[in-house]
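Quick review question:
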C-alpha cells in the first residue's frame, strides 16, 4: 500500500529498528555474562569482546536455522512463566527498606508511558505476518497473534511493573537477584536474549531481502549481524525509554494505515502481489498519512496540541483519518 519504493523505505525503517533491538538484547546478554564471569571467576572481560563473540554465535545460529531455537523456546517458555509467577509471589512479600527507596526517578506522563509500552511490541505486531504465514490455518494465525500480545504480554507487563515498583529498580537483573533467583537469573536472561536476537536477525534479513538486495541469505545475515554488533556498542540500553518511544512514533502510523486499508477500504479483501505495483513506485497518500502521524506524536509529546493526551492514540487517529480521506478524495477525482 506504500508503493514499491515506499514499501522499501518502510522496510528499511524496520531493519534499523530490528538492529536496534538486536543491539539492546546483545548489550543485555553481554552485560549479564560479564557479571556472571565476575561472580564465578573473579574476572570481568571487556564488554566489547563478549559482544563480538556472542554476535558471531548468534549470527551462526541464525544461518543454521530455527530447529534448535524452536526446541530451546519450547523448553524455556514454561520455565519463564514459572519464574514470573515466582517473582510475583516474592514481590508481594518483599519489604523495601527506607534506605533503598529510589528518589531520582523522573516520572513519565501517562501518554508517554502508554507510547513506550506500545513501542516495546509495535515492531513485532507489524512483523507478525513473517511468522503467522507458516500457520496451518487462519484460526491458528489469529490465536498465535492474539494470545501472546493481548493475553500473555499484558500479564507480563503488569507483573514486571509490579515487581519493579516493589523493589524500586528498573534493572531486571538486579530485580531477579534481589527476589532470590541468584545465578539462575543470569541463565534466564542470557537464554532469552539469545533466542530473541536470533529472531531479530532473521526478521531483519527478511526485511532486507524484501528490498531485493543482491546478497544471498547467509551473506545478508552476516552483514546484518555485524551491523547489529556495532549497534550494541552504542549502549541503547542506557537510553531504552527513548528508543521505545521512537519506535512507537515511527511505526504506529504504519499500523493505522494497514488497519484502515485492509478493514475499511478493502473490506477484508485478500492482498495480491499485483496490488504493490498498482500503488506505483511511491504511494504519496500513504506516505503523507504516515508522516502526519509521526509529526502528530511529536507535537503531542511537546504539548503543542492533543486529542486524547496519548501520543500513539492521536497518531493512529490522525494518520488513519488522513489516509482514508486521501484515498476517498482520490477515488472521487478518478471517477469524474
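Suggested answer, residue by residue:
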Amino acid at each position: 500500500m506504500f508503493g514499491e519504493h515506499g514499501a522499501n523505505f518502510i522496510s528499511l525503517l524496520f531493519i534499523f529498528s530490528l538492529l536496534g533491538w538486536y543491539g539492546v538484547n546483545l548489550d543485555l546478554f553481554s552485560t549479564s555474562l560479564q557479571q556472571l564471569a565476575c561472580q564465578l571467576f573473579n574476572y570481568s572481560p571487556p564488554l566489547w569482546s563478549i559482544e563480538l563473540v556472542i554476535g558471531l554465535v548468534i549470527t551462526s545460529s541464525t544461518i543454521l536455522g530455527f530447529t534448535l531455537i524452536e526446541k530451546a523456546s519450547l523448553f524455556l517458555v514454561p520455565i519463564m512463566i514459572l519464574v514470573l509467577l515466582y517473582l510475583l509471589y516474592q514481590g508481594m512479600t518483599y519489604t523495601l527498606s527506607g534506605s533503598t527507596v529510589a528518589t531520582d526517578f523522573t516520572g513519565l506522563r501517562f501518554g508517554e508511558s502508554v507510547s513506550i509500552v506500545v513501542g516495546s511490541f509495535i515492531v513485532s505486531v507489524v512483523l507478525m505476518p513473517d511468522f503467522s504465514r507458516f500457520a496451518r490455518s487462519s484460526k491458528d494465525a489469529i490465536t498465535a497473534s492474539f494470545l501472546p500480545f493481548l493475553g500473555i504480554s499484558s500479564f507480563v507487563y503488569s507483573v514486571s511493573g509490579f515487581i519493579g515498583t516493589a523493589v524500586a529498580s528498573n534493572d531486571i537483573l538486579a530485580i531477579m537477584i534481589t527476589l532470590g533467583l541468584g545465578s539462575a537469573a543470569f541463565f534466564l536472561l542470557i537464554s532469552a536474549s539469545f533466542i530473541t536476537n536470533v529472531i531479530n536477525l532473521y526478521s531483519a534479513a527478511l526485511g532486507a531481502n524484501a528490498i531485493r538486495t543482491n546478497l544471498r541469505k547467509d551473506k545478508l545475515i552476516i552483514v546484518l549481524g555485524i551491523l547489529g554488533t556495532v549497534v550494541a556498542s552504542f549502549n541503547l540500553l542506557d537510553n531504552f525509554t527513548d528508543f521505545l518511544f521512537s519506535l512507537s512514533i515511527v511505526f504506529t502510523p504504519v499500523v493505522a494505515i494497514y488497519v484502515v486499508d485492509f478493514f475499511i477500504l478493502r473490506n477484508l479483501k485478500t492482498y495480491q502481489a499485483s496490488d504493490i505495483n498498482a500503488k506505483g513506485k511511491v504511494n504519496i497518500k500513504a506516505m503523507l498519512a504516515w508522516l502526519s502521524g509521526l509529526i502528530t506524536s511529536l507535537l503531542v509529546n511537546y504539548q503543542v496540541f492533543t486529542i486524547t493526551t496519548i501520543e500513539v492514540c492521536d497518531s493512529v487517529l490522525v494518520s488513519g483519518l488522513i489516509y482514508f480521506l486521501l484515498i476517498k478524495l482520490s477515488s472521487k477525482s478518478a471517477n469524474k
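Why it works: Residues 4-41 form the longest helix (38 residues). DSSP finds 13 helices and no strands in the chain.
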